[in-house]
Amino acid sequence: MLDLKSQYNRIKTEIDTAIQDVINSSAFINGKQVKQFEENLGLFLNSRYVIACANGTDALQIALMALELLPGDEVIVPAFTYAATAEVIALLGLIPIMIDVDKQTFNIAIPEIEKAITSKTKAIIPVHLFGQSADMEPIMIIAAKHNLWVIEDNAQALAAEYTFSNGKTVKTGTIGHIGCTSFFPSKNLGCFGDGGALCTNDEVLASKIRMIANHGQKVKYYHTIIGCNSRLDTIQAAILNVKLSYLPEYIKARQEVAQIYYQGLTLWNKGIIPFENPNSKHSFNQYTLRIKNGERNRLQLYLTEHKIPSMIYYPIPLYKQDAFKKYVPLTMKLSVTEELCNQVISLPIHTEIIKEELQFVIEKLLQFQITV
């Protein structure tokens, strides 16, 4: 699904120099490269404040902690997403309220949000799934109407863009009150381990987030609030500083791969290719098809036989996971989410894939026979 080694080899000298600089300085925690990366990412996103942390899941947890929600408060999330989005809600004693998603974009379904709002609702966490922005303009309108916080889960969509009805275009993660992202190696901007960050334009929230990520302290050994230990180590920051300068190139490469898939599969009547919202510039962290007639699993076996990797994101709705069953009615059934879990399959898409490999994948897909 990825070729991280080839990506590294293309920028090996820069990466190795950056790592060696950290080793030479021996400032492995909170070295100067961490602050440099925060500043550089802030400039890239046009966000006033960026706070690096240990991973994307921590970023979501810290964001919720910064909002000072109380046990029992409800947070609305899409049911079709990775477990981390809802996991951090439950971890803090809050209640994840899972709602259905849009069949075309896979993102949170706007009409379902207001239906789920109660007197206990305090926040919405839209997920920019697979690299495409959720429809943020109506989400922010609903949030303002009901006085709700918005935390963007931008782990899969760093560098994606969203255009408002007035023509203004912004990067995902900078629209809500807090944006959270991950630098897991497979992400659009991946480090060589774990890493994450939060961004906000709110000075008060930024100060609180930075304190929470550092044991609740602003001054060493003076702990003002309860926090946690969540740091991006200096070596990872140095690596990300190098790779950030290549991020526009990486996104362009992914978009070009997606276009080749699109052109090759447009007339394919066995699957549904990804839909791109006209108000969202897709960053294609994943290229995800929907396979008709219940043949998804057979297709995956077929691809494996031809040595073509694939992944299923995600095979089970969140509300059917054992960990979350106590938060939802036993009879809960979200039709779109369940349909997607039975249909989706993601194809290889990364910065180093070559046209011959793509044509091979497309050729094999076109040869796949679906039982009618």
What would your notes on this structure say?
- The protein has 372 residues and is α/β, with parallel strands linked by helices.
- The chain has 2 domains: 4-98 and 106-244, Aspartate Aminotransferase, domain 2 (3-Layer(aba) Sandwich), CATH 3.40.640.10; 247-367, Aspartate Aminotransferase, domain 1 (Alpha-Beta Complex), CATH 3.90.1150.
- Helix content is 39%, strand content 16%.
- It contains 13 helices and 15 strands.
- The protein has helices at 4-10, 12-25, 32-45, 56-66, 84-91, 110-116, 136-146, 203-213, 234-244, 247-265, 296-305, 335-343, 355-367; strands at residues 49-53, 74-78, 95-99, 121-124, 149-153, 161-163, 169-171, 178-182, 196-200, 217-219, 222-223, 271-272, 280-281, 287-291, 344-347.
- The strands form 4 sheets. A 7-stranded mixed sheet has the order 1-9-8-5-4-2-3, sandwiched between helices.
- The two termini are 29 Å apart.
- The mean pLDDT is 96.
Tag the structure with descriptive keywords.
single chain, 372 residues, alpha/beta, Aspartate Aminotransferase, domain 2, Aspartate Aminotransferase, domain 1, 2 domains, seven-stranded mixed sheet, three-stranded antiparallel sheet, 13 helices, 15 strands, 39% helix
Helices and strands, with pairings:
Layout: H1 4-10, H2 12-25, H3 32-45, E1 49-53, H4 56-66, E2 74-78, H5 84-91, E3 95-99, H6 110-116, E4 121-124, H7 136-146, E5 149-153, E6 161-163, E7 169-171, E8 178-182, E9 196-200, H8 203-213, E10 217-219, E11 222-223, H9 234-244, H10 247-265, E12 271-272, E13 280-281, E14 287-291, H11 296-305, H12 335-343, E15 344-347, H13 355-367
Helix pairs in contact: 2-9, 3-9, 4-5, 4-8, 10-13
